[in-house]
Amino acid sequence: MADSRPRSAPPVRATGSRSALAPLREPLFRGLWIAAAISYVGKWMQMVGAAWLMTQLSSSPFMVGLVQAAIMLPVFVVILPAGALADIVDRRRYLLATQAWMVAAAGSLGILTILGHVTPWILVLFTFLLGLGAVINDPAWQAITPEVASPENYVSAVALNSVAFNVARAVGPALGGFVIAATNSGVAFLMNAAGFTGVIIFLYRWRRPRVETGDRERILESLQSGFSYLRSAPVVHSVLVRTAAFSLAASSLLALLPVIARPYGASGYGLLLGSFGVGALAGAGLLPHLRTRQPVDRVIAGASLVFALMTFTTGRLEGFAWLLAVLFLAGGAWITIVACLNVAAQTMAPCEMRARAISVYLLVLQGGMALGSAGWGALATKFGIPATMLWSAAALVVGLAAVRRYRLTLGEPELTPTVSAD
Q1: Per-domain boundaries in the chain
Q2: Of 24, 29, 226, 355, which is most buried by a Cβ count within 10 Å?
Q3: What sign has the CA pseudo-torsion 379, 384, 387, 389?
């Protein structure tokens, strides 16, 4: 019988990879990445289906807007406790529970929709439950990346995770629209539930190493110790300030893209999102090479200037082919910035606090995107798209002033040594 007693070992630290696709050659990461990509597509199908179904159930703009609010509200309510909980329980079991929650919510909504028993408020309730599950899931999900990718491929693994989400952003809405047109929203909801089951199968088969964790904290104690560390760590301040500056300023492009794409119809909008996703894939391919040749602050500054220029240009272009090219470049710049910030967030705290640090980072990133989208939308309503995109681009450039005071350091995440099989 194998000795399962804890054994001390020095932390393993990650190094940068020169190959963007190298993590996909690792069976563990490849399995998780494929399952996650399918699940992300299902998530976007769910969002399209819920929005479309509400327009059929109610003509009230308030109820239609409430669907989006139901998705975003949990971010502000539970993401910090979720991060604290993910640091004091076994993350594999925790993720199995959150994925099962989302299967139950999506599956139940799908069945109720097909049977014709959904009302506007039932739709809002189940949309909130799905958003709640996703938010509770996110900190632990991102925190396991160093456990499923080898140290030398860690940076590329983070970039590929971001690529999966952005490609799904392009594919999911188009696929969802096709499924809804051919059947109904209930089928899209059931397909989303099926996507979660793939992740559950992976997690069930994954034999996560078990480590000595010491005394278990209560969730409030976990939150307090996490906040105490985050307040005292300058590297955390740098990551959060830079994330807030970027998310607030950059959110205009994707928020206003549906309005910009309106002359080209739904298919044109899908193609523009697809170009953004392909650009993200290309940017992920270049990122490892950029990071080996330039400091991270210089990489982010250059990508921010490119994204600012593309934002400004998008507000003034009318030709569809030119918009496709601009969105491609914007996607590459976007993934470069977000991947660098994500790596910085995952390395700004020791491994026992990783989920708590990520939860704060996600709150700032997603909260900034939500607030920025609302603000830029209000400005566009009053002053028009071109002026708003100009101000957004200017805000991105002004935000680069934070580079001088809040410099980023991409640390090498501590990978907890294996002590026994789970």
Answers
A1: 15-211, 229-410
A2: 355
A3: positive
pLDDT digits (tens, 9 = 90+) for 188-210: 999 999 988 888 988 888 877 66
394: tokens are: 């200017």
Please state the three-class secondary structure of 102-150 as a single string: HHHHHHHHHHHHHHCCCCHHHHHHHHHHHHHHHHHHHHHHHHCHHHHCC
Average pLDDT of the segment spanning 95-118: 94
154, 413 contact by CB (below 8 A)? yes
- Our CA dihedral for 351, 356, 359, 360, rounded to 10 degrees, sits at -110
Evaluate whether 169 touches 44 at the Cβ level (below 8 Å).
Answer: yes
**Helix-, strand-, coil-residue percentages of the chain, each rounded to 5:** 80, 0, 20
- Amino acid 222: pLDDT: 65
* SS3 at position 231: helix
24: amino acid identity, one letter? L
Query: Quick one: which of 313, 316, 349, 348 has its CA closest to 333?
Result: 313
Q: What is the dihedral of CA 350, 159, 174, 123, to 10 degrees?
A: 0
Evaluate if pTM is beyond 0.70. yes
| Architecture of the domain made up of 15-211 | Up-down Bundle (1.20)
Residue 87 contacts residue 226 (beta carbons within 8 Å): yes
User: What distance in Å separates the CA atoms of residue 242 and residue 94, rounded to the nearest whole number?
Assistant: 30
| 308, 365, 381, 389, 392 from 249: Cα distances, Å | 9, 11, 17, 10, 5
- Name every residue whose Cβ is closer than 8 Å to that of residue 70 and which is 6 or more positions away in sequence: 124, 125, 127, 128, 131
pLDDT greater than 80 at residue 367: yes
- In the numeric block, the tokens 């993200």 are attached to 280
How does 214-224 read in b/e, with b if 16+ C-beta sit within 10 Å?
eeebeeeebbe
Topology (CATH level 3) of domain 229-410: Growth Hormone; Chain: A; (1.20.1250)
The mean pLDDT of 263-272, rounded to a whole number, is 74
Bridge partners, residue 210, by sequence: 420
Beta bridge partner(s), residue 209: 421
Task: Read off the DSSP letter of residue 5.
Answer: S
Q: Which of 203, 201, 204, 198 is nearest to 106 (CA)?
A: 198
